Amino acid sequence: MHSSKLLIKYGGNAMVNQKLKSQIAATLQHLKKAGHQIVLVHGGGPFINQALEQARIHSEFIQGQRKTSPEAMEVVQKTLIGEVNADLVSLFSKHQLHAVGLSGLDANLVKVSAKKIQVKQANGTIDQLDLGRVGEIETVQPILIESLVKDGFMPVIACIGTDAEGLSYNINADDFAGEIAAAIEADYYISLTDVDGLYENYPDPKSVLKEIALKQLPSFYGNIIQGGMIPKIQSCENALKKGVKNALILNGTKPEQLLQFFEKNQVLGTKITH
Question: 140 φ, ψ to 5°?
Answer without folding.
Answer: -125, 130
